[in-house]
Structures
1.
Amino acid sequence: MKISVYYKTKKVTVNAVIHLFLLVVAASCLFPLLWMVSSSLKTQEEIFRNMSLLPAKFHFENYYYAWMEGGFGRYFLNSIFYTVSVVIGIIIVSSLAAYGFSRLKFRGSNVLFYMFMAAMMIPIPGSFVPLYILLNKLHLRNTAFGYILAMINVGLSTSIFMLKTFFDKMPKELEDAARMDGCSKFGIWRHVALPLSGPVLAVVVVFNALNVWNEYVLALIIFDSKHLMPLQVALTTFQGEFITRYPLLMAGLTITAIPIIIIYLLMQKYIVKGVTAGAVVG
Amino acid sequence: MRIKSTLENYLFVLPAVVIFAIFYIIPFIWVFQLGLYEWDGIMPTKTFVGLGNFREIMQDKIWWQSMVNAGYITIIALTFQNALAFLLAWACDREIRLKNFYRMVFFIPPVLSEVVVGLVWQWILDGNYGLLNNWLIQLGFPNLARNWLSDPKTALTTVAVIHSWKGFGWGFLIFLAGLQTIPKELYEAARVDGANAWQSFRKVTIPLMIPVAVLVSILTILGTMQAFVLIIAMTGGGPAYHTQVPVLRILAAMRGSSRFGYACAQGISFGVILMAISFIQYRFTKKARQA
Amino acid sequence: MRGKVLGKSFNLMLSSVLLLFAASGCTPKSQTAKPTLTVWHWMTDREPAFNELAKKYEEITGVKVNFELYAPSDAYTQKVRAAAQGANLPDIFGILGEKRDFASFIKAGFILDLTPYMEANGSIWKDSFFSEALSVNEFIEGNSYNVKPGIYGVPIDIMTIQLLYNKDLFEKLGLDPEKPPVTFQEFLDIGKKIREAGLQGLVSGWGEVWMIDCFANNYAFNIMGKDKVLATIRGEVPYTDPDWIRVFTLFKEMQDSGVLYNGIVTMINKTAEQLFANDKAVFAFNGSWCVNVYKGMNPDLNYGAFLPPQVLDQHPYSIWGGAGSSFMVSAKSPHKEEAVKFLQWLTDKNQQAYLAEATNNLPANKKSVTEIPDILASFSRSIEFATHPNVWGVSEFSAVIEAFDKGIQSIIIGEKTPEQVAAEVQAVKERELAKQERR
């Protein structure tokens, strides 16, 4: 009797401690988000004077102004287009390559793989200038296609690395089964490897989506036409040379954060499901 | 038949290699050979200095200081940040309440822009009016209150902690993905064999998570060594050189003193060092991974 | 299932990409009689005013002017440099940063020499400007950059950097709000009062090193005079000279007296502005653009401007000032003449007055200083004391400037003594001089 009470209280205490820990960390993560949203509803004077998270009056119109003045409509669509294109592009290109490096044998596979790894480690300072000149020569500079290709390259190494790690871990039974069923290598990739790597793919999606969504220096340098610019450029409208219009900037940042959070929430489900984990062992 | 099969194999990696060759290799070669020149980035003429830039880097005390600083931040990230990420992932993997809420909230820091993160933390950490010092004083520890971001003794650690705070969401995500792919059956089997919670953690979880842990550490090292945006937002690399990091030095050479060639040489030396670190780490953990 | 979704989206992506590829290839080039000018700028705050002026110009002359904004200034600089390498510079643009980079652009052939236009008709265009504004864009005879002497840029506003003080906080400290400190000792004494009252003193973006440089330089001029400072840059006087050590010691004195805001060494200027605007600091060191900033954050702020309190009075006052922003014309532009005409119009009396009113920046045209608010007027009056590194004809090595400014940061946080920093800076200087000899 006493023993079970001991175990029960131990369980409750452990749970309580874990919950407290989680709550504290969660609070620290939520705070900046709440501050950002609350600042977006204040006025310029209020932001640094009124320290509480509750604005005196809720200025929802800041969102309207931010959207209008920043020309968000066009830039928002552009960013979505770039992000979707790059993410799809990377999933295909990097999963093909990762599968190839992990499961297929061919001459130079190690060398090529290490090259990709090395790229992760050697940052190219000022790579914007050679990229600019390169895209210029290819007549792709002021185009969406050029930008998308360049951005695919940015996330390529890390995505390949992540996917290869998981493909290496993947048990071979399912692949062997598929092969015996007459599946081609491409078919195995499409029907076995990809679905199995659901959780990792979700991470790759989020990683690259975030990178593309937040990128703006390359876009600013290679695009000359306003109508090709991504969302981040619109945000610079509020960060003046001297005056930063904080409420509008915060409203803009909040709007900008929403799609990424949505992508994350969607991808989260794939990470949770851990797809067909049971089928592999069984 | 063999040829067709081999060609097929190459086809898998072809798109990646082509894009890589165009958008990475070519700029890389351009930058690599620029390290041998003295160039301001504007004039059409460059001066060949051979290994002069590299010799200068060897004696550049500030450069090595920035490396040490980055190394310090990285060590904090490897320990504090990743331990936190793993603990949180493990906690969320179990069946607890509010699981979804936590999973959403922990990824907010990586999503937030550096602008917001920099502003909010500066405000919290301000030496005179900041929230943190306010709380410390109210809780009865007035002598703990200090100028977190400008005091040379605490600036770097503070920056490292905030960097970890912003980055743990990634480790959390990857660890969670890794934990989710451990088949539940293995835990079942362990329990049937009479293992308690700690033993099944040791015998099931840890071995299967090692490849993931290695992945996370490599990504952490590479990502943190190259960090700089948050640092600019919070301390500008100061006070004096206490929070300088390598990328800031490269930017300073590129834009501040207009020494493009020197910046490229710095970038290359940096890359070499990162490669060496990764290589050592890869070899070091090879045994553990193969177990 | 996943494969199908992927397949569909892949097709979608492929077709939309091909579509875009096709679309981007065919933009009809309309043949207009009048050219279109493209201006690249970074001045977010002035974009609406610029666009208004562009519209007006088109009505008057039929020439369309496209103002394209690329901010922040960091990214702008990169864009301009990349465009220069790719031979894609617009008709009109600005060059931010040091004179040395400006010189490189000129020597590389990217910038149009504006001297003939400036001096045409008895120098009518040249004379309309404050001479300090023009000198920043000018290269004089015998300059150390080997640039052919001439005027290569057009200033569109002026600015000065001065000290500011909070009149309300002055009253709180028991000081006369109309009497800012005149001597440096007075300034330090106020520091003691600030510390006793538990308030905070001077704020400035000293995390951004150039502001430290500006402050230190003002006092260097005050203590040893312009000639000796320039001689030091040329390498004729060492930084270990007692006058320089005096300059370094000023910072120690300020820190000890309590007149500096606790944490000023990592402060960025925007934070400094926000603190001063919210009555959290007694003093600020900032440029004339701050008037607009403070107004936006706290229109009731009661403050005044004053010149740096003197350490010695042998040498004249000196502050940094001159052209705020300037525009240059691309030497390779197909519409050079039109571009110059537009800039002449932009810097004309009326347009400058409009800009000054709309954006609260000081006009570069002497005749436009009419209806500007009091505080701004006091900034403009001090233009006569203004100097700027870009007009001295010599540049200090970047490594030396960095060691200098970071050294001062070390002094403020108490890590090094003025003598140590002086020795270190001199060591860097000698190393740089030796490198220059070898080249």
2.
Amino acid sequence: MVKQRLRVDPIKCKAHGMCSELIPERIRLDDWGYPIIDPRAIGPDLLAHARRAVAECPRAALRIVGVDEPGARDRPDDPD
Amino acid sequence: MTAAVPTARLLPFPRVPEDLTAHLSRHGERPRLDAGLLVKSIEESGLRGRGGAAFPTGTKWRAVMQRAAGGDAVVIANAAESEPASFKDRTLLTVRPHLVLDGLEQAAEAVGARRAIVYVSRAHGELRRSLVAAIGERRRRADSGVFVEVVTGPNRYVAGEETAVTARVSGRLAKPRAVPPRPFQRGVDGLPTLVQNVETLAHAALVARFGAGWYRSVGTPKTPGTTLVTATGALRMAGVLEVDSTTTIAEIVERSGGVSAEPAAVLVGGYFGRWVAADAIWQRTIDVDALRGVGATLGAGVIAVLPVTACGVAETDRVLTYLAGQTAGQCGPCRVGLPAIAETFHKVAIGSARPAALDLLARWATDVLGRGACRHPDGAVLFLASALQVFATDLRHHVRSGVCRFSGQPALLGVPETEAGWW
């Protein structure tokens, strides 16, 4: 199975902060309440929590994506 | 030391605006090449984008070509040049509009685009007029085959980012959006779109004429060809230079008439670039690896020399405040984070911050990185991080005393007025 990780759409996100309560193992909040996503893969132990966080986001800003999905801006050396 | 005669491919002297007759007598008609061969040639040339991201041009052309797959596509020459310290794109488009337009038309034919557009900033009205005149010259010849339009965007830093450009050309506000989809997948009106800086297109026009081998005959294997840089700051003769990747910062300074005061640091890339201590970079070339060794990239080609008689903290303070004001206001870490960073840095600069503020700024610089839909927040915090490093001693002095001997000097790095709208 393809390894998966969490990704937030930074335009949709409005800092409700529920995600970090539901999966603190992968999401912490910055000083302004916006989520900082840990890019490490989600193991089977965390998958249920990740799915719940995705489902509960009031802005539908959170997604589970393949770790290698192209186009992520979370690698600053990835040119566009 | 006598430097070799610099190679001038894009901007030979005298730099007077070249009309179509002069352009044709210099280079002749642009060649009509098979699309596949042209794209292959661009790939082999090793040409990379000159708007700041340095993405391989051939890869981009092929991606749009394959995505269009015989259907419609759009090409855009990006002349927004919203980087305040840069004026190489305006210089090129003013002096050699037909070379850029050759490149644009060739790109349109290669990817099969029916629309070809030049995107300019509303701040550059004179450029727009000369460009429209150049396009008119070509239309009167009626054999160019590609109908070129001009679209004007707002005078804002992020309005030149490629997803902001495709949004504006599609009739929406010139704000970046989250990727994917990237413009090559879905750009103007949902069509595969090639957005390319004007300098890149001018190089592509020359590769089409003279080939990849010719292109690679100057520079280094990894960074071939020539490049335009805007040399500014404490120089006797600030201006746009054409150099290659074997050129050192010292040579750029020498060709700019030398320094007008002892140098302390160099800002490389632009306002989204990095400060580097002068002695660490002076003898380095602008080759990608040489610059990476000091944590910098050539970015949009800005080389700004900060003299010891200026205050790096005050300069950084003004630029951070400008960048914070340039947020499109879409992503929290940028909309809220950058103003917080700018405000805290300003407090440091005027001596009303606690010493811990420097640690807070360092943490924010890390926290914000990579968290916007576009790279605007990344640029601002990488610029900040470099200032925290290069001006560490000065910053501690400012925390204690608020001012230094030079903080009242006029700004070396100017910040433009920004318009309120986004269209």
3.
Amino acid sequence: MSITQGQRLRSPAPATRAVAQNYGPPAAWIVAALLLILPLIANGFFLIEIFGTTLILGIIALSLMFLAGYGGMVSLMQLTIAGFAGYMFAIFGSSGSANISLNWPWWLATPMALALATLFGALCGALAVRTEGIYTIMITLAVGSAFYYFTNQNWALFNGHTGINTIVTPHFWGVDWRADTPFYYVILAVAALCFAAVSYLARSPFGLALQGARDNPRRMAALGFNVNAHRVAAYAFASFVAALGGILQVWNYGQISPGSVAVDRAIDILIIAVVGGVTRPVGPFIGALIFVLLRTFALDFLVAIGLDGNRFRLIIGLGFLVIVFFSPDGVVGLWERWRRRSAPALTRPSGGGGHG
Amino acid sequence: MTKFIERNPLWALVLLAVIALGLWLIFAVWPQGLEDAIGKKKVFLNAVFNGVTLGGLYFLVASGFTLIFGLMRNVNLAHGSLYLFGGYIGYGISVWTGSWVLSFVAAFVIVALVGIVMQILVFSRMEGQDLRQTMVTIGLSIVFADLMLWAFGGDFYQVQTPDWLVGPVQLPFLTAVKSSGESVYLSYPKVRLVIFAGSVVIGVAMWLVLNRTRIGMIVRAGVDDREILAAMGVRIRLVFVLVFAFGAGLAGMAGVVGGTFQSLSPGEDTRFLLASLVVVIVGGMGSIPGAALGALIIGLAEQLGSVYIPTYAIVVTFVIMVAVLAVRPQGLLAGR
């Protein structure tokens, strides 16, 4: 419980509200500006392999953050929903597997995939809300691994363990939207939208009711809220976000296979969200950046210090353990605590008198 | 049982009909029409036996899982790693000493020791924080999986079956009657039957210990209310350590069984973790008879599914889980 409980005790609400009125901290604007002009600075590898992948994984982890942070439901099936959306796009769109793909145009296949994935996520969510807390993890993990084994076994729809390859990505208005720079802006726009939607929803009546249901479901039920309906709606919204991430992922790689929805990958999403922090929407993106940087450079780093380069997952696992042990609210929590500890020492002597 | 029949006469009747149909399918000589429709009886009987024996293996893995969950509310997602680790230990010991029985003992003891270390160093420090404990077990399972991949590589290992268990055994189950009037009986690998018998013995022993001894009484009381039990002066932490060690040891032993039945390779840990999860969700969290029933259902569903609807076999398992969650969210045989 502690991962989601930790934040309840010291709610960050007053701080965020004050910040929001001042149009956010300057650091956020600098980061946003940097992200916008990034294609001028970074080349293709950094643009897509590092930042594009970070944003995509961040979107999927953001959906988990929404469920875990505001709903208190730790769902391990967010990657499965993303993968489902990806598979649906591959099946309805065009790909190298002509006997499976239906060759719909992308503007029809994408909404279809999003709608089906949202439906799938909402149905599985309706299943998961029949139980609570710790059981949610078990059921969503079972859903995720069942889907993984199903895609492996099934050849008629999912083409078995080879998966679906050379998926056709959108190409319109004379722009190849899979080319590095346009694709980066597509990812950035979707990520910004998802970020804004989650931030907005958290403060909307729905989000507040959801957080109420997280903190005390019985009281919320007594107040006349339909707790389960709120939770299923949260699953539906999170599934939509995850499905957006899944479609971007399929456009990125141009292929999808059971390996993309494997259980390890699903757990990676949990690691990203927890390492970044599930108390703020920005957490998953920070976690994703750390994860992608580690995944990309761990090999070189490990070899450089004279270790076996293949032990990337060991580092990820140990890092995750350290975070869970010492900072249950992730890197975001570490940073907040550090700021709170250092802030009084810095500001009180100089500017403390005037404003209080 | 009688209460169940009184309360749900219709369901009891349906259940009875299903059991009767199953028994008829197993014991009767199939009429020609049935064989034409769904294939030979031998295939069916083999699938049933594979399912039941696989259920025995699932029971060994899942009973430790459910015991740990029932007492400590700790969803040990590293349980699959303990299974695989036990399998590798058993493989190493059986290659080194050549003794199959010794490999079981060694796997049980070593994995139980790992369980003790985990409980003392990790879980006892975050008692009562279910979600954090679960996160830790996820982290541990990643670390264990990578360490084992490092040590044993990605190869397939199989534990050598001892000579006295190699070969088939004739069972008194008719598979067909030849035109000459001669009856053909089912022959089935001896080792799987012996292992199944072993898991039944372990299951019955666990039930007896839980229901007839003092330590079992303490564990059952702990499942119901551990705070009150601790207040009564029982050294609950010691009980926690013992139960965790036993559950982990069972998983390790199951690893040797799995290594003999099938094979050991990276990825098996996830497979058996999933199996335990589904078994426990279906049977009821924290209930040993529930784990037995769930293991039997899931084992049968998996094997029959893979014979009759190969590309949708996993869906059968999943549908069973969904159905149970829809009708009885707490599991079929859950106490509460």
4.
Amino acid sequence: MTYALIDNASLTAVDRATGHIVAKNPDTINGDLAAFENLVQAILFYDNLVSIDNYKEEFRDERAKRFSFINFLASTNFGLSTIDELAKREAASIKPEIRGGEFSDKDFKELVEMLKLNMVCTWDMRSSVYYLTMKMLGQPNTPEYEKYSELSASIFNELSDSGETKGPWSTNVTLISASGHIYLEQEFREQKQGLGGTTRALDMFIAALNWMAYKSIYYSIAAKHLKADSFIHPIRHAYQIHWMKKTGAFGHDFTSRLIGNLSNKIGTSVSEIIDHGRVATITLDLPIFSAWLTQESGGIEGVIASALELKKADQFDIARQTIREIKIAYDEDGISLGNANVLSRPSRIERCKLKMGFLRLYLDNCCFNRPYDDQSTLSVYLETQAKLHIQEQVKKHQIELVWSFILTAENEANPDHHIRDKIADWMDLAMLYVPYSLDIETFAANMMERNGIDAKDALHVACAVESGCEFLLTTDKKLIKRTGRIDKMRVLNPAHFVTDYAEYIDYEK
Amino acid sequence: MKNDGVIKSEGYSALFEKLGPVDAERFLMLLSRERQGFDYTEWRRNLWVGNSLTEVAAIAKQLELQAQERKIHTSNKVID
């Protein structure tokens, strides 16, 4: 059984995304959508969803009713009280320190750097008193500025969860001048004029950072304790990564990483188009599943119900089963043996992707010509059958076909003009056309040197890899032998492809 | 998907209907003679084999243009 532990901040974000709670600040929207996507992925890829019932008491029942597909655990059961104490102790050891206007303690310094938050604190005068004020660097109306707003809004939003500004979450900040002088609270109180301590906004920011650190640690330890994977709000996830690096506490986000890898390829290609050149730290992943379900169900309010329905489908059942097997392999055999076991399973994951209709193929000119070759040899006959079988799936849009400039060119050189014209028609069914580019040529040059293949083959391989194909199919044994696997792409004979993946590309099903 | 028997039967009908009995048989003869022993995978082994990557890329770009022009020409002919 696999469990996904969802934090309350994510559920609040989902409530904002679906319109159950009013979003007070539009800058939180990206983070909310990422949290919404996390929940949808958790529904699809986990057997059970759990959440710790530590939300504001007056809203608890209503929330439990709305998210009736989640098992809410009392925060005092299952040894969770001890986890809370542990997390509080760990969070208390974090001492925020601002030196010369910037965070200088290891924890927040690294986090601020990791999130690329260009922030400084300066002493600004208000009513004859200087207050330490938080400033974000950057020009308004630029993508960078928008990003800082989104990030700081997400961080400030942490406070809606805690409801405290001063108090345990912000009293511990140490202020140190650029020359190394440590300011004491007393100095601020004594001075009627001069330095007046931190502004309320900075207090709130620090309180929010502290709260975020505490909650991230709490959910990380709780997930490990409950043998679940943690699905926490994206901004907390950023801190979780830092904390895991610091403590070496890995192992509770295993499945989510695996799903991340599955959708990574689509995510990367879409983000390259939409978000070209922009460093989008907060938009951790593109909401692939939620965006698709929104379109399918006709609106964001129907997404969760559709996801719960889709969860029952065969392909997601297979995906969950595979994830369970991989998890068991890790749990039972440990990291090294588990790794060895899992290495023999990627083809199974590829099969799931295929069944889910995500598979992208590149067929080289040998494949397209196979039906026109002399069929008296058994291998040629089998490869022809396989190629026809695959093309049937292409026609039904169950497999994505990629075409390239080098396919067009090589086809143009085909000695039989009738065959050339018939093969050229397949280009119209391709989902993607890869034109010549310097990147393709550079990739091809490396391939030639590394794998000892000729220029035209190197260009085919480069086009297939660059367009994100899972497989390149060819009947050229030499090419298969010299390449095998390039990055994440496999080079295979079409007959082998059909034999290995038969049950998933059987068009009669 | 149609089985081999149905495809053969429908294929022969289409062929003989379009070409008539003599030309249809000549077509089958030509096909069998031309494709006998032909293996495209073997044939392409020597294609542009003496050319450098830059040369192959340049040839490819030229041929791609040629294919595009022919496609435009053919589709114009259909429209005409």
